[in-house]
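Table S2 (continued). Query chain:
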Amino acid sequence: MYTVTFYSFKGGVGRTMAMANVALSLARSGRRVLLVDFDLEAPGLDTFDLLRPSEPTPGLVDFVTEYRDTRAVPDVTNFVYEPTHPNLDARVWVMPTGKQDGDYGSRLNAIDWSQLYAEQDGFLLFEDLKEQWARALSPDYVFIDSRTGHTDVGGICTRQLPDAVALFFFPNEQNRRGLEALVRDIDRESNESGRMIEKYFVAANVPDLDDEYGILGKEMAKFRQIMGHVPHGTIHHYDSLSLLQQTIFTIEHPRTKLAREYDGLAKTITEANLGDLAVVTEFLDTVVSQPRNRPPELVNERLKKIRGLYAKDGAILYALGQAHHSLGRDKEAQALLNDAARLGFQSEEKLLEGASKEYSRGAQDCARDLVRRALDVARNRVFAIVSVLSLVANRDVDFLSEGLRTVNARGLSVDEKLYIASGLEIQRKALPPIADFLRPLIVPEQPERPLAITELSLCLIGQRRFAEAEDIILSLGRPSELIIQDTFNYAMALWGRTKAVPQEAFSRVVELDRVSPRQQQNANYHQCLAIASWAVGDPESAREFARKSRKSIDTNAPLVFSAWRYLKAKKDEFLQDLEQLDAMISAGQGQPLILSDHD
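Corresponding output:
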């Protein structure tokens, strides 16, 4: 259980809105989240539509009141509710401030917080409350919405309860002075208790305007004196009437700029929580793929902590071994891999090896069980996922849909899903489930929408669904507005639909290359230019591009996408495609394999 308090010295910065959005962003990705409303004078969590209780529920004030009346710690489950909104498919609990009846103000004013701590074991009461949260609800995260300013209960929210504090501020002098004092208090608590409380500074409600006179820059420079660096997150002012309706953007409008800022803040706030398996897995994956991307001191400290926290988790020890190996620490890596094996862990490679054998002997059900286990082991590592599903695409394509549904439920980014889809375009029969996997990614306002459309168009052309491919490409704009790769795919789709070479479309491909050639001119790029040059009646250029295509084949890459067949091909298959392309150029007639009725 990782507890984060959301605090602001002044109101009006969108702190509660941010907390609700960050909490539900994590809940959407499978985390169990408890939200606690400690803004006792101005409660509001239970007014969000998605977080509204089905009936009035007692909360924090009632919990403390009952304790003062009876001197026995109440059962916390009587003061917590679980929202049941149909659009909220996640494990979320809310502990409100209390029943908003006519006596709420009287109950709140009757609590003497100083006396509670000095004479009635208030510190132990809230320690017991934390234990009850963990025992009764087992949340992965607890988010506390704190009162503003310096208050009697401020220390409970910012020093006693949290593992981290998200400090929201509008960049002006009043906020800076208020935060400066609080930061000193938090640092003193960390030093005296020996329990490090992480601090995250979030500039909020920031105008999204040109800073012509450097006003914002000057104010932020003053904040750096207490932050030590730039903010951990920035939430810009957002003009939308949905804010009046207390819309939770990460659930109801997940493709908006504001939702992306909240999602980014969620990732930042959780990054230090090594008790979160998803955080640990992502960190280890980053060390493997980009071993020199983070400060060595931070990497070493986290690797050491992970080793201690997950000493009995074979999967984590295996990933930890891979991380050490990527850092050149082969001795430590081998010891960790041995420990993982002693715990009975099998890597996805071993499981895939077993699945392949089961497929070979016709034991499909056994093979599928091993594939499911391999996907579990792979978790969110996209390289491993592609390896697992590539076996399925080659040996058991009917099972690919289930595998992609499993992957789709894991909260991967759009870019990661596009990478997975691209890696699986190796068999014609695999393209329909891949297309189904891609379609939900084509959403208005999403930055990755053009990339998703490009990838889907490859799948559709690969299935010879040329008219559909043409329509989806033109959803990006008129033919004259398309970038070079979409222009080429449009030309191929048009050729496939009309059975005639669309010289005008291919001419634009050639012109775009002449005016603004792509920086990444790989084997596929040159192959496409060879086809386009032939189509516009320039066999000399076509031969030269085909030659360049051969020369630029990446010998380290096992597969390369071939525009001749609209699938990823092995090196020898790609060379065969180039031979057929050469024959078409020499003969002055013919068509790519994808345009024929059979492979």
